[in-house]
Amino acid sequence: MATVECKIFWHHMKSDGKCNVKIRIDHKGEKKHINTSAFRRTKPNQQKLPDQSPFIKNVVNRTLDEYCVAISS
Length: 73
Prior knowledge:
The protein has a three-stranded antiparallel beta sheet with strand order 1-2-3, with helices on one face. It has one helix and three strands. It is α+β, with helices and mostly antiparallel strands. The protein is flat and about 40 Å long.
């Protein structure tokens, strides 16, 4: 069964200080990262998706739901 989660890689920061929120899919020992349209500007204490940004949370949750439906069917 595949697992899906959100990640932000702060070492991939662009010159304007933004980082792309990525979706990580793990399946049978393989990891793939998919870019989303969401960007995060401030660096939180962790690399997981912060709960403080409702816009990022909505965009990423919608995308995660689409992937979960595709995986389960």
